[in-house]
Amino acid sequence: MSTTSEFYSDPTFTIFKVPDWRAKLYRYLSVDVWGFLPSPWQRRISAWYSTFYTTSFSKKIIRPYIKMNYSDNDYLDKFKPPFGKEDFGSFQDFFIREFRHLPENESHHVWPCEGLLCDESKVADLEYVKVKSDVRSVNTVFGVDRTTIPKEYTFTNVFLHNKNYHRIHSPINGTITRIQHLPGDLIILRPWIYKENPSLPAFRNERYNVDIEDEKGRTWYLSIVGGPAVGTIEMGKNIQIGQKIQKMEELALFYLGSTCCMAAPLPPRFHMKNSFVEVGGTY
Fold first, then answer.
1. Each residue of 105-114: pLDDT tens digit?
2. In a domain, 242, yes or no
3. Domain assignment present for 146
4. Among 29, 49, 87, 160, which lies 20 to 30 A Cα-Cα from 229?
5. Greatest CA separation found in the chain?
6. What's the predicted TM-score (pTM) here?
7. What span, in angstroms and rounded, lies between the C-alpha atoms of 258 and 96?
8. For 152-175, what is the mean pLDDT?
9. Is 256 exposed, middle or buried (0-12, 13-18, 19+ CB in 10 A)?
10. Distance CA 187, CA 172 (A)
């Protein structure tokens, strides 16, 4: 059996130690200043300043970026340019890179993405969150009624740092039963500036929700959340209601900035809050 370790030479993730005063300042700027702008303005501004990463000039920063963030000098060899391109023509191409060979894992349940597990809790233990003038429950993240997700389910939130792989894959074999697009804000995603609730952006940001029913009839809820500089969240090919989907089949990709939340009938086996998870690794 192949394992994900052969695909990741540097699976460590530094959790930044942000002083309380700085975290409060960043939160204020994100929620009370930037978050005060109407959502369409946030999207237009984000689209404008993210255009740099689509220019041919931006490809010059790929190699220095890799050298700064990865200990493996051959890291890029594990990936290929997106959409059948022959080379990485821009930094955006690197950001949405594709695996040359997807990680393999015999486990029935795998992580759908790569990043920092910044939140992990039973649904029953999650507190309500005040967003603007509304009080919202975790079900709000997934766009379902308050009683829809069983309380014994486990909620997880994986923050995808800029250096992480930014495609979302199915965690199980199953059938897609719901797809929902929820427009919203694009406040900053970085969890260390929301110390009381690192999942706050998932309650208010633009997101796509996808429900997958597994072979035992249990629903796995996924929420694919965008942040500042997200040009779009692009759903994978043939992702539609009623579609059978295989474990590790691509669900979506991000054009800069992302978080992936999941409500699952099982808790993670080997990971806890503030640990690093790998796409295709055993959930």
1. 999 999 999 9
2. yes
3. yes
4. 87
5. 51
6. 0.89
7. 12
8. 93
9. buried
10. 30
Instruction: Give the structural domain span for 84.
Output: 4-277
The torsion of the CA quartet 245, 115, 167, 40, rounded to 10 degrees, works out to 110
Residue 251 token pair: 């669900």
**Residue 247 backbone dihedrals phi, psi, to 5 degrees:** -50, 135
Q: What distance in Å separates the CA atoms of residue 249 and residue 110, rounded to the nearest whole number?
A: 11
- Three-state DSSP at 157 gives strand
Residue 142: band (very low, low, confident or very high) from pLDDT cuts 50, 70, 90: very high
Position 2 confidence tier, pLDDT thresholds 50, 70, 90:
very low
Q: Is there a contact between 204 and 131 (Cβ–Cβ < 8 Å)?
A: yes
- C-alpha torsion sign, points 43, 49, 55, 59: negative
Q: 47 CB contacts (<8 Å, ≥6 apart)?
A: 231
Q: Tokens in use for 188? A: 């900053």
Q: How far apart are CA 203 and CA 222, in angstroms?
A: 13
Is there a domain that residue 283 lies in?
Answer: no
Q: Which amino acid is at 35?
A: G
In-domain check, residue 118: yes
